[in-house]
Design goal:
Blueprint: E1 7-17, E2 22-25, E3 31-34, H1 42-48, E4 56-61, E5 75-79, E6 94-98, E7 104-112, E8 116-120, E9 130-141, H2 144-149
Antiparallel strand pairs: 1-2, 1-3, 1-9, 4-9, 5-8, 6-7, 7-8
Bound molecules: zinc ion.
Zinc ion is lined by residues 149, 151, 153, 160.
Length: 160
Amino acid sequence: MDIKDKCVVSFNYVLKGESGDLLDQSDSNPLSYLHGAGTLIPGLEKALEGKTSGDSFNVTLAVDDAYGQVRPQLIQNVPKAMFKGVETLEPGMEFETKGKDDQVMLVRIEKVEDEEVTINGNHLLAGKILIFDVDIVDVREATEEELSHGHSHEGGGHNH
Ligand code: ZN
């Protein structure tokens, strides 16, 4: 069947940056998602629309169709004392924190200085042009349960 809303799609992918550097790829299991639920980045979901099982394609996504622009207001210097109790503070470590509207957001440590720590709440792939190589493995109708949850139940691994 062709990919449209309310389909569960499984696909393998290789994600590269603009200069051909490998950024990510599907592991031993294909990635599975519910089409039309907005769980994929918009440009990739649009590129998958109408394709079918067995199709392979390559798509280059502009920053705005991928993870969006880097938002400078999400990069902040905070006092090191905020991380009291964390034994070793290193760049690249990730912490969950509550944003303005109580939304849980993931921040990454960018820089550690004597008194201050620079944290970055942008997605790691924000501000990047992304190139996806996609192989579609399977397309099927979503179950009632998947539709009511708004996500695919393929492969498990998610919490309810
Ligand atoms: Zn569910």
